[in-house]
Queue: 4 jobs
Job 1
Amino acid sequence: MANNRKTEIRVFTIADYEEEEVWLREQHRQGWKLVSTNLPVFYHFVRCEPEDVVYRLDYKNSKEDRSYMQMFEDYGWEYFNDCIGWLYFRKPAADMDSDMEEEIFSDNESKLEFLNHIIKTRMIPLLIIFFLCLLPQWLNVIDRSMDAGIDVVLFVIFSLLMLIYLYLFIHCGRKMLKLRKKYKNCYKKIIL
């Protein structure tokens, strides 16, 4: 039975949802169907027949009502998982007549709203936590380590946390700006 299940550890940031969708599709093509996720890094799969299945993610920071889920179901999308606000949908590629049917958002304006929602409900709160909690604590550790000279381990830990946070903010910020630009340009082309 162990060969019929696998768990993969994979890190995707909030700005890497498109890469996550591609990776999940490739896993399904290789005969591994996603059944659940724990935290944002543990992916649990079961063995299945290899098939081209499109995976799409939506981000909601609240529970969605039945009509929201029914809308996806009406368009043939199977809802099967949620993880920290991310909703996971899938649909066999064979059931789609066009590239437009591969999308859960009907237009680029909806994609822009989706990105703005992620920024408002994930990025901004994390930045606030960073500037109000982590940064002052790090400065406090620096100040204490200069005086006492004994908090080197604490200084190293907080410095590593700061570097990780900064890297993630820069990575996510750049990626979100790139996605916004992509969707805005596509939106402008459609209007013209």
Job 2
Amino acid sequence: MIQRSISILGSTGSIGTQTLDVAETCGVRVAALTANQNVDLLEQQARIFKPILVAAADTAAAAALQARLADTDIRVLAGEEGVLAAASLPEADTVVTALVGIAGLEPTLAAIDQGKRIALANKETLVCAGPLVMGRAREKGAEIIPVDSEHSAIFQSLQGSGQKEIKRILLTASGGPFFGWTRKELERVTPARALKHPNWSMGAKVTIDSATLMNKGLEFLEAMSLFDVPPEKIQVLVHRESILHSAVEYCDNSVMAQLGSPDMRLPIQYALSWPERVPGPARELDLFSCGSLTFARPDLETFRCLALAIRSAKEGGTAPAILNGANEVAVARFLEEKIAFLDIPRVVEEALDTVSREATLTLETIRRADKLARAAAEACCGRLAR
């Protein structure tokens, strides 16, 4: 049993539904649920877990949900205010931030301001505002425990060790569905093909990011803030089997790693139970059947999104926010089949080249960088439209 009460921001997505699996198995109290507009699933979740509060970011969805839950005593809220209320709910000691994109930033800050534990699955929060978020967490005494499988593995591998002992972080990548493909082969990739990940079941945006290796670039930026390391201390390795989820190399050249089945319920559960471990729903790893474990260097020439993310990491300031905003637009337009797969890094690079960056990170400068990046990306997509 895990003695926690949680709010799940983004409960109808992949991370949110798997968090509810963990909650049901481990006896975690669910205090609040939020979604965008998936009324059917959110109503089902509310009736099963009986939270105090549910919120739909989409106001029409919230109105429909309120009518459906009229026979219960569950509070139903709408819009950004509803999501912020769920993030700040006094009855929840932990907030699982499973929102996609920069939309997760302000709810995460709201939860931090209440001193809650953050089970962080929204990588864009640290990509765009890492120093701001981590500084606020230290100030408020809030714990930030990563949910991404790679960052959870690093977090677990760091237990009992000091910052000065770290030589480098070894950040693994599955390589996505197109590992080994040439640029010519990537020219004909369709959204349907890109959404078929070999190892993981994820939402559409994250799956496309995995296919372009932008997901690994975002995780590279996230790791810098989570573990307070410069870009030079992070090495990306392609590990096709997704068994070794990441590792830490220490100053004595020892390497500590975390292994497990490719099952997101394990890092979710650890973020809720840490520093303890309890039995849960994650699949057992059978070392006798998993075969060889292989490692390769990423192809930064073919998969340029990772190279662009590392570039933004070195530039600092609002450069990562520009990268993220432009990427969100590019991925959306690719999924709509308005631009080609290889246009995604073209759009991101143009935004990095043309949008002026600011050295100081505040909510205002981050919002401004995001807005300008999205405008630049939309203009670029318009020129590239097929």
Job 3
Amino acid sequence: MRERRMTICLNSAAKICLGVLFLILGGLIYLLFRSKTLYIYIWSESLGFADLIDSLRLFVHDWIVPDFIIFSLPDGLYCAAYLLIIEAIWHEEKGWIKNLTLSVVPLVTISSEILQFFGIVRGTFDIIDLLCYMVPFLAYTMILFTNNYKYNFLKTKL
């Protein structure tokens, strides 16, 4: 009898597409609402997108966008994108190397934000940034544990 896994999951292609969408959305927020001195603007300018981006910036110039969306949401989107894409790439793996690889970026960003609070790392501590780094990592961890629990529960019932 073939085992069926009842899990909360997306296939690898969907994870990569969602990850890329998160990267694009985070990048657009940066390009449209943040300073033109950021590297992403300089890179897009060198690719020939300056006029398009300037037109889009002019279009959204009068929009009232909360600081959370401009300054913190992209961080969470990038973290979620990393988790989704790495999970899609390593979807067949089950070992500690996969978990370490998945954890690197979220743990570095979370640690960096905490170290900013103590003045050990240069930057300005922001609790909202910290939450934006933590939410995708915690959501991924909860989904992972839920899937493992359901899998093990169903495995014992078969």
Job 4
Amino acid sequence: MIVILRENPDQQQLNHLTNWLKEQDISVHRTEGVHQTILGLVGDTSHVDIDRIRQMSIVESVKRVQEPFKNANRKFHPLDTEIRVGSALIGDGSLTVIAGPCSVESEEQIITIAESVKKSGAKLLRGGAFKPRTSPYAFQGLRDEGLKLLLEAKKVTGLPVVSEIMDLSHLDLFADVDVIQVGARNMQNFELLKQLGKSNKPILLKRGLANTYWELLMSAEYILASGNEKVILCERGIRTFETYVRNTLDITAIPALKTLSHLPVVIDPSHAAGVSTFVLPLSMAAVAAGADGLIIEVHNDPPHALCDGLQSLTMQEFDKTMNRLIPLKATCGKIY
């Protein structure tokens, strides 16, 4: 349920309304716009007397929200959520690019790539330490040692770091990681999501291989409902009948999620296609559609990468890609 207040509501009446709702075990989330204040009511609102609320002089209207996601719902939070990470502000209409290797392989490798992508305009450094692989015999990442090397690259370059968590037992290892990524396979690991909701770190939540927008937003709801409002949604491609590319990038996810939710939306063109030559056109499509950011895989030697070399850009290719994306974003501006 949402309560839309009249302009400049009487503070005493507002406090009375808020306290009355809290006495009924209803959480009240307040969003203040330029001309309007909205109260988002979360909890069992079936017993709340709507007519009593409507009769208050400070109330303009009351609406029930049918969607199961409340905190992630744009109706509850009309203004876009902006998340500060280092020098980047994700969700403010600018384009934030996260770049780095699929997997951290050595100190020299990660620092070399970090210095290069920063020079090209990336605002955050990504790097996998714990790697979810289809085969148990494939490279699984350097694990905690990989996180240490990633943080060394942060010391050298100043770039905030993004890395994927695989299991709840690893949470303490991510204490110094700036953005915790939840991969597609863990999108509905609800126990993990609830614990991440108790942290104060931004969470990059990837859409599952065969999940709907609503299911993605319900996963985000687990994090938000547990108290962490710093959630970034990520579309990384879904599994369809097409086999020519690794996944099918769902560009429609950008306007759809922007309509349904106030959370920032980032696109992963590398995992979507699985082929490096498709990264630029998919990135351009995402920027033109209004994405808040991109997460792009970059490697100093893709043919010899221990993980996903086929979809990784070289450092030179990433620089050329950024030279195309920056002016495109300036042309497109803020769409939503």
